[in-house]
Amino acid sequence: MIRTTGIFVLSFFVFMSLCYSQDSITERKTKKIKILPVPALGYSPETKFYFGAVALFQMNFYQDTLTRTSNAKVELNYTMRKQFIAEAEWNYFFKEEKWFTNGILHFSKFPDLYYGIGPNTINTNELNYQSNRAKIDLNLLRQVSKGHFIGGGLKYVDYWDVASLTDMTIPFQELNDTRTLGLQVQYLIDKRNSILTPTNGYYMRFYNAELSTANGVYAQFSVDLRKYHTLGKKKNHTFSGRAYTVLNTSNAPFFDIALLGGDKLVRGYYFGRFRDLSLSTVQMEYRYTLYKWFGLSGFAGISTMYHNTETFGTYIRPNAGVGLRIKVDKNENTNLRFDYAIGNDGQSGFYVSFGESF
Predict the structure, then answer these.
(1) Which of 46-50, 60-64, 297-301 is predicted most confidently?
(2) Range 272-281 average pLDDT
(3) 2, 61, 57, 64: which is closest to 35 by C-alpha?
(4) 287-to-76, 199, 212, 325 alpha-carbon distances in Å
(5) Can you give the pTM of this predicted structure?
(6) Which residues face 197 on adjacent strands?
(7) Which of 213, 281, 269 is closest to 244 using CA atoms?
């Protein structure tokens, strides 16, 4: 744990210094930051009921029309499955968006379920296992034209003390202590009008990483495309869509291959219930503002997991759901989101989160 905690803390202070070192003392007087500290209480298939605290930061330091509002989130949770999760996440625009940084710092002690690798694993193979997890994902991008960014960063993931909670030995050979480190590059087009709750514009992210483990080097590539459009005289009908694909080479570790499910990607499935080298998904969502601070949503999608191009589309996983939206910040149009979604094979999930899923 010492090996990851030091890096975690150091990375956090690097991020904070980046945010505060760009202006003179005189300019700092005009900075504005909103902090929304709230208790966290929710439910997801991975955690069951959880409780804790979350602080949502919205930063508009430069007060100009060329710089969108930045955001960050710090969250501590404890779950009914005896999981402890500490995470910090940020999206920060420098002045006039000439530079952009985003990242995640994560630590968790996480009892979890594992079913093996493949798009059609069976429930009888369920293994309850324990692991400590640390993740550091740091990125810095330079604006090359308005809304277009190019750059790269560092990715470090560490799983250690991996052990079965039910058996003396783990039946899956790939389920063991693993550390991965590598460099990543990305090209980003971000034309959204908001990061947390976009209603207009589009987003395109092309990502490639070369990562190293004790078993060798593997590559990871992903494409993330999103589009948003608002209609109606009151601008209260919002349509959004997302197409996402991630590809991994064959020697990627079990935790870094494509995982189906979760709050951000394919709602309605236990995150990690199905996993394979590659995943492609299309998700659509409709959001309707019923009242000033209250809204509804409906969403659906279709996904496929595959080991290679020959098995693409062999197993199809649909999902669909409904949700409530409660506005917690009128100026930044930020919502607290409650979603319920279902998949197939008896999968379902309830989610509570700030901002939209995509």
Answers:
(1) 297-301
(2) 95
(3) 57
(4) 29, 9, 41, 9
(5) 0.85
(6) none
(7) 281
Q: pLDDT band for position 168 (50/70/90)?
A: low
31 closest CA partner among 40, 46, 19, 44: 19
Calculate the alpha carbon distances from 151 to 209, 220, 239 in Å: 12, 16, 30
Residue 346: partners with Cβ closer than 8 Å, 6 or more residues away: none
pLDDT at 33: 87
As a whole number of angstroms, the distance between CA 134 and CA 136 comes to 7
Nearest to 282 by CA among 358, 353, 189, 190: 358
Q: Give the C-alpha separation, 79 to 267, whole Å.
A: 19
The DSSP letter of residue 118 is B
What Cα–Cα distance (Å) separates residue 228 from each residue in 1, 203, 234, 235, 355?
42, 9, 16, 12, 14
How many other CB atoms sit within 10 Å of the CB of residue 288? Answer: 13
Instruction: Specify the DSSP element, H or E, that contains 184.
Output: strand 178-190
Nearest-angstrom CA–CA distance, 271 and 46: 6
Q: Which of 192, 3, 14 lies closest to 90, judged by CA? A: 14
CA distances from 126 to 123, 135, 165, 312, 342 (A): 6, 25, 12, 25, 20
Q: Residue 177: is its pLDDT beyond 70?
A: yes
Q: Using CA atoms of 123, 129, 133, 137 in order, give the dihedral in degrees to the nearest 10.
A: -10
DSSP character for 23?
S
What percent of the residues of the chain are helix, what percent strand, and what percent coil, each to the nearest 5?
Answer: 10, 60, 30
Q: Beta partners for 247?
A: 221
- What's the rounded Cα separation, in Å, for the pair 351 and 48? 10
Residue 282 in contact with residue 302, Cβ under 8 Å? yes
State the amino acid at position 2 in one-letter form: I
Q: Which residues make Cβ contacts (< 8 Å) with residue 128, sequence separation at least 6?
A: 111, 112, 113, 164, 165, 166
Residues in the chain: 358
Which amino acid belongs to residue 163?
A
